[in-house]
Each structure stands twice: as C-alpha cells, then as structure tokens.
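Researcher: I'm preparing a figure for a lab meeting and need a structural model of a single chain. I don't have an experimental structure, so a prediction will have to do for now. The sequence is pasted below. Please return the structure as tokens so I can convert it later.
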Amino acid sequence: MGGVNRRILTLVVALVPIVAFGLLLSVVTVPFVALGPGPTFNTLGEIDGKQVVDIKSTDGVAGKITHPTSGHLNMTTVSQRDGLTLGQALVLWMSGRDQLIPRELVYPPDKSKDDIDKGNTADFKRSEDDAEYAALSYLKYPKAVTVETVEDKGPSAGKLQPGDAIDMVNNVEVADLKAFQDVVKNTKTGEQIVIDYRRKNAPAGTATITLGEHPEGKQGYLGVGVLDAPWAMFDIEFNLANIGGPSAGLMFSLAVVDKLTTGELNDGKFVAGTGTIDAEGKVGSIGGITHKMLAAREAGATVFLVPADNCAEAASAHQDGLQLVKVDTLTTAVDALNTISAGGEPPTC
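Model: Understood. Here is the structure written out token by token.
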C-alpha cells in the first residue's frame, strides 16, 4: 500500500510543474503586440451594400459622372492583436505569419489606448480628404476656398458646411485662401458678413454670419477651417469604417480617378497596394509592408503598388507571383498602371 502512495505522490510532484506551466501559458499576458496580414478591401467594390468609394452628383445619381470599372484596386491592412497570453504569443510566433513587437511601440506609455485609437481614426479621415483632393487635382478640377471644418456652436454652425466653396465675402471675390484671409482680417467681433458659397448637395446660396470673438486676435471669428482645394459639384464618400491610419490614401485616390475617367486603370487585373497620400498627390511610406504584401497575394493580387520609400523592405520579402511596382506620386501610380495595361514594364522595386 505504501508503494502505491509513493507512486501517486511521485506522479503528483511531476504534474505540478506541468500544470503550473500550463497556467502560465494560458493566464500570464506578455508585453507584446502581434502584427500580421489583415483583410483587404476592393476600393472599386462594395461593402455592406454600399460602394467603398461612392461618387454621386447632386441629384444622387452616379451614372451621369462616373464610368464603369472592373477588377480590383485593393487597399491592404495589418492585423493587430493585443493582450496576448504567453501561450498565444508562442503560437503566433511559431506560425511564421505574425511578428511580435514590444507593446510600447504601438501603444506608447504616455498615451491611452483610447487616445491612440482616436488618433488613428482622425488620420484615416484626413487620408480620405487628402485622397479626394489628390484625385481631383490630378484630374485638373479648379481650386476654391473650401470649408474643411465648422466649429460646433460657432458663428458659422448651421450656416456653412464642410465641403462648401466660398466665392465671395461681402461682395468681394475670394479666389484663394490669401484673398479670403485678407478680407476676414479686417473684420471685427459682432460684425455681420455675407458669404456667397457653392454647396455640393444643394443650390448655391448666401449666409449672413455674425462674427464672434477671435481667440488669438482682434479680427472677427468665423469658426471655420478653410483651405485651397480642388472642388467639384459632386459628392465623394468613402464607406470603410473603423480602418485606422492613413495608409489607404493612395488606393482611394486611384479608385476616384478610375471611376471618373474612361477605361480601366487595372486593365481588369487584380491590383493591390498601400501608401499614404497628401493633397498634392505625393505618396508616403507606411508600416507593415511585408504583412500587406502577404495579405494581397493570398487575396489573389498579381500587382502590388509600393511606396518608393518602402521598396527596399518590400523587395526583401519574396512573394512569388506578385509584381512590385514602385510609386512616389499619384501620377506615377496611374502611369505605371497604364504601362502595365499596354504591356510595358513599369518602375519596380
């Protein structure tokens, strides 16, 4: 009987570290974030019944201004997993598909996760605006003094809207931002001014606005943010929600250009890519290029647009069957796709 008890005791002693290690794997979290291939979205397609890039004239009809498209112009993303247990981290690391990086590189200690997520969302919205401006600028739409933001409860709330083009202030034509500022700087608090504007979703109109007190000067305060930007009568809406960061900008711009011009930029091929874009059409570098390339290849892409500054890293990650095309502006991206369609060789990484 004593021998049996000793065997049981030996078994229990042997199992203790195994159980403890199992608990360690399943309970203890690690200060790492896993990055890997994320979903891709066709900017020429639909999501939840809506066009990802939706272009409509003021009467709500797209067909009057857009042209047929086909194939793919896919934006790519990086998946991100936080709060990993030791076991999950080991499994992801051994898979070879995911990269573990210190959490502080993604979520700096001096910022809350909520603040970072809000910043990413703001960056994404900024990229949508810049993608629109870059595409319209490429297509030679004329610039106007454009309302970008309207302060809640400010003097212009309910009278001007984001997207309005300001043509005149107190019967003085304002062809650009400097002309607008020259007129406004000579106003004062409490003064009423009359603004003539064009609006994308309504007839042109005028607004009489009583100026508030300027927080930084003696001039009157309109409570709007304005900029010089190319302007068109139609609406451009981007219907991808909760995709943080600015790296979809290039592919959004290409979709706008493709829909507003005859022919097909991709020649019916499966094109994917990534890259930030500014309002002038300059393409900027992004993070996670190798993860995005893998996601694109697995989705079926054969051509991948790479920001010039990411080319060295992209070329080091061999993805068979994926042609890496080097781009640094919206113009070079369009030219490269046209070259491919014509059977030529575009700039590559």
